[in-house]
Design a protein that fits this description.
Order of helices and strands: HHHHHHHEHHEEEHEHEHEHHEHEHEHHH
CATH class of the largest domain: Alpha Beta
Oligomer: single chain
CATH architecture of the largest domain: Alpha-Beta Barrel
Strand order of the largest sheet: 1-4-5-6-7-8-9-10
Strand content: 5-15%
Length: 465
């Protein structure tokens, strides 16, 4: 293994190069991206305003009349009136509650929110998802497409989700196969990669998904999952198993291992699973998966993320009197991410690594470790969220890294929860995205080694960035 000083020095040099290149990207004044940035800046400026804005975004799909939209605007933003610019305060007083002007206002509000949602959501159907994929491939970036929505509550919904996944694989396979090839994203160090990549939420496939009954849950989920995996295998597609809240983790891993141990899929390498570095037991889970994959005799992929349920996990564990399953400080999560990065690169024979992060420090560490240990750049990939950190994606692609974009699509109503989480990640005080584009935060601080941070100035959410 390389010396830690050499590795740290290279990490910082790569990070500085990324920052230097990213700094050259500036949105066109008054263009769509510029306006998006202004809205983000407004929401980041005050915590109370941010909370009210996100509360309104979350409830908007359920508001059916202009009167209800105006009433909620007044109620939510009236609570933080003194924190708003004078022009906004004046606008709140003059909001029309009914009539043609009220209808016009509600239409503008809905249009603006949908436009913001489409920054993070690729479309509402497969055809729109295909167009998003086409745009990504033109920029030499690839994708994993996911269907928006949380756990299903009826078997009818679960059957519909299965049909959606099957239709997604078929629709993408027919279209993406006709797109021009690009070796950067279509090949790794072992050869050709599946062009089509989809992400599946297991809780969407069974309405009674319950970790109290892992064997029964596994049996029912696998029944619905088999046709999806067969379709992917037959069409040369890749399927990644999304990870949800901590209570579902062990059951998700169990289903992943059990179905891929079945004779029909035992020699199929084009499957993967997401693991969350902010969980204290993720490093043990990585060891378990490595040993299982070696016994199986066929590799799988691991998407390493930070995790996006920090508040939920902390609150639930505290209420129930259970041990908190997540690291409590951001630097602990960052350090765990880098330890897991090392494990994945050392065990890439069985666990093909995908590093999902917007944190330039974490990504630079992965690139540096690969370089000093002789791992080809194509043996790993970097993953980021659709609509976030686009300049970083562009820079990393130009530096020869395969970049895969997590691309959700679906109806806006179930997508609102996803949208709010993305907005929170963009604007959280601990967000690397927020700090990374703030001229007040020194680059050296952003690239500092988390293992050296034995104290943290904050103890709240590490999030996914």
């Amino acid at each position: 293994m390389p010396s830690e000083d050499r590795l740290e020095g290279l990490t910082r040099r790569i990070g500085q190069e990324v920052f230097a290149r990213v700094s050259q990207f500036r949105p066109m004044p008054l263009g769509p991206t510029w306006w998006d940035d202004q809205l983000m800046a407004l929401s980041m400026g005050d915590e109370a305003v941010k909370v009210q804005m996100f509360r309104f975004v979350d409830v908007l799909p359920q508001l059916e009349t202009p009167e209800s939209i105006v009433r909620h605007l007044r109620e939510y933003f009236g609570e933080v009136r003194d924190r708003l610019p004078w022009s906004v305060r004046l606008g709140l007083r003059l909001l029309p509650g009914a009539g043609p002007l009220g209808g016009l206002l509600s239409g503008v509000v809905r249009w603006s929110t949908r436009r913001l949602a489409r920054k993070f959501i690729a479309g509402s159907n497969v055809d729109e998802a295909v167009e998003a994929v086409r745009r990504l491939r033109r920029k030499s970036q690839t994708f994993t497409v996911d269907l928006l929505g949380e756990a299903t509550i009826t078997e009818e919904e679960a059957e519909k989700a299965q049909a959606e996944y099957l239709g997604l694989i078929r629709g993408l396979s027919e279209e993406v196969g006709r797109m021009p090839a690009c070796d950067l994203i279509d090949r790794d160090d072992l050869g050709p990669l599946p062009r089509v990549n989809v992400s599946v939420k297991l809780s969407a496939l069974y309405s009674q998904f319950d970790p109290i009954d892992p064997d029964g849950t596994s049996r029912c989920v696998r029944e619905r999952l088999r046709p999806v995996l067969r379709e992917a295998r037959d069409r040369g597609a890749f399927v990644n198993f999304d990870m949800e809240q901590y209570a579902f983790k062990d059951t998700t891993i169990q289903i992943f291992e059990e179905i891929l141990d079945e004779p029909a899929f035992r020699d199929w390498p084009h499957a993967g699973i997401a693991l969350q570095a902010y969980l204290r037991d993720t490093e043990n889970d990585l060891g378990r998966l490595r040993d299982w994959a070696a016994r199986r005799g066929t590799c799988v992929s691991v998407r390493l993320v930070k995790g996006a349920y920090w508040d939920y996990e902390t609150i639930m564990a505290t209420q129930l009197g259970w041990p908190v399953p997540v690291w409590s400080r951001k630097w602990e999560s960052d350090a765990a991410y880098e330890r897991s990065t090392r494990f994945l690169l050392e065990n890439r024979r069985w666990l093909r690594p995908a590093f999902a992060s917007h944190n330039i420090r974490n990504l630079s560490y992965a690139m540096a470790l690969a370089r000093v240990t002789g791992v080809p750049p194509s043996a790993m990939e970097i993953q980021m969220l659709y609509g976030m950190a686009d300049p970083i994606k562009e820079v990393l692609s130009r530096m020869g890294q395969r970049v895969r974009v997590y691309t959700p699509y679906g109806d806006l109503l179930p997508g609102m929860a996803y949208l709010v989480r993305r907005l929170l990640e963009n604007t959280a005080n601990d967000s690397f995205l927020r700090a990374g584009f703030n001229d007040q935060v020194p680059i050296e601080r952003l690239l500092s080694n988390p293992a050296d941070s034995m104290e943290s100035t904050r103890t709240d959410a590490p999030l996914v960035s």
